[in-house]
Amino acid sequence: MDTPKLPIFTNVLQVAVVVDDLYKAMKHYYEIYGIGPWKVYTFNSSTVSDMIIRNKLSNYSMKLSLCDIGNVQWELIQPLDDKSIYYEFLKEHGSGLHHVAFAVNDYDETVNYFRQKGIGVLQGGLWNNLKYTYLDTQSTMSTIAEIYQISKDFAWPEPEEVYPLK
């Protein structure tokens, strides 16, 4: 396989923080820093297909909230079970920066490139025609890298709720 055109990552799309209490975190970010409004979604086997953890099919669940700060999306994630890499992170480190999502030129080429380098997939799934994949880059980047494959018919679903309510 050819090496992808460098740089591998072409843009920063998202910064994500794992938290133990999503609503407390949204309130804090909004009231202290003015960051928001937050769109809230639940990811589980009812809303996400093809869920994997370390390349094996495995259902997990989390509640997350999203907002934009300039051109970068900020994400807060609260694990709802003990199966995900978010739960592992929270148990080992407490709340904190979990991953950074990057744009890539070619999703499949990028996944294959990382596999050739011995860097595997930690977790992933398909949500509303958006395939998300977390790469095992902690030892080489000091954080987890996430990449997306977004279909042409992807559309943001309506959030379950928005915080704060307007």
From TrEMBL:
GO MF annotations in UniProt: lyase activity; metal ion binding; methylmalonyl-CoA epimerase activity
Pfam family, one: Glyoxalase_4
Keyword Acyltransferase appears in the UniProt entry: no
Keyword Lyase: yes
Protein's GO biological process: L-methylmalonyl-CoA metabolic process
Gene3D superfamilies: 2,3-Dihydroxybiphenyl 1,2-Dioxygenase, domain 1
Highest taxon, organism lineage: Bacteria
Ranges where the VOC domain occurs: 11-164
Keyword line: Lyase, Metal-binding
Protein name as catalogued: Lactoylglutathione lyase
UniProt source species: Desulfurella amilsii
